[in-house]
Amino acid sequence: MHFVVSFYFLSHCSVLCHCRPKKTKYTATRRLLLKSKLLKKATSMLAAEKEQNKRERDEALNERVPPLKLSGLSAQELQELCRELHRKIDVVDEARYDLEIKVAKNEIEIQSLTQKIWEMKGTKQRTKLKRVKKSHDAKLDALTESKMSSKSDFKANLKTVKKEEEKKEEVTDWRKNVEAMSGMEGRKKLFDAGQ
After folding, report:
1. What is the rounded distance in angstroms from the CA atom of residue 44 to the CA atom of residue 38?
2. d(C-alpha 65, C-alpha 190), whole Å
3. CB of 125 within 8 A of CB of 118?
């Protein structure tokens, strides 16, 4: 409340006086000190958060999975316990699989919706390219090579491609061809010719 009142007062005073409130400038050493203090505080908060998450995880595991009491059990009872654990594992695996499918569907839907948004904006989403650092010598070499290649003969840079001559079938009397290909012998010839 005090901050709001003081801000209101400062804004109205600046309007009445036609001057802006004075901005405080921090020195480089002060900024460095503040930055180091913020980083220390953030690291301590992060460590505390990790510790809290670990405690919550341990508590949840202890609650959901009570410790096994295996002492004094016969072989038959141990087998029954193993069967019960396998049933529980199957149930958990089914739930995990269902959740994975839901997550995959949601990710696909999110991707398609973002694509639609980009299409509505009229711009395509550009792929992010890696920035490659080149030395000055490499840049100079690239420039001189491009100038040299543009001056060189265009036909010299083309690759030669050999064309295969198409086999031309001779035109013969179709009646002779039908008689030769009739029956099983003709089908065998067609099959052999196809391979």
Report:
1. 10
2. 71
3. yes
For residue 87 the two structure tokens come to: 């049933």
Q: Across residues 167-182, what is the average pLDDT?
A: 60
Which DSSP string do the residues of 152-195 spell out, in sequence order?
Answer: S-TGGGSPP-PPPPPPPPPP--HHHHHHHH-HHHHHHHHHHHH-
Taking the C-alpha atoms of residue 187 and residue 178, their distance in angstroms, rounded to an integer, is: 11
Rounded Cα distance, 11 and 19, in Å: 10
Coarse DSSP helix, strand, coil percentages of the chain, rounded to the nearest 5 percent = 70, 0, 30
Q: What DSSP line would sit under 84-117, residue for residue?
A: HHHHHHHHHHHHHHHHHHHHHHHHHHHHHHHHHH
In whole angstroms, give the CA distance from residue 146 to residue 79: 76
Q: Give me the numbers of helices (H) and strands (E) for the chain, helices first please.
A: 6, 0
Q: Give this prediction's pTM.
A: 0.34
Has residue 45 got a pLDDT over 90?
yes
pLDDT at residue 56 is higher than 50: yes
C-alpha 45 chain-centroid distance: 29
Helices 183-194 + 174-181 axis angle, to 10: 100
Residue 130: enclosing H or E segment and its boundaries? none
Query: Mean pLDDT lowest for which of 17-21, 35-39, 80-84, 105-109?
Result: 17-21
Which of 66, 101, 103 minimizes the C-alpha distance to 85?
66
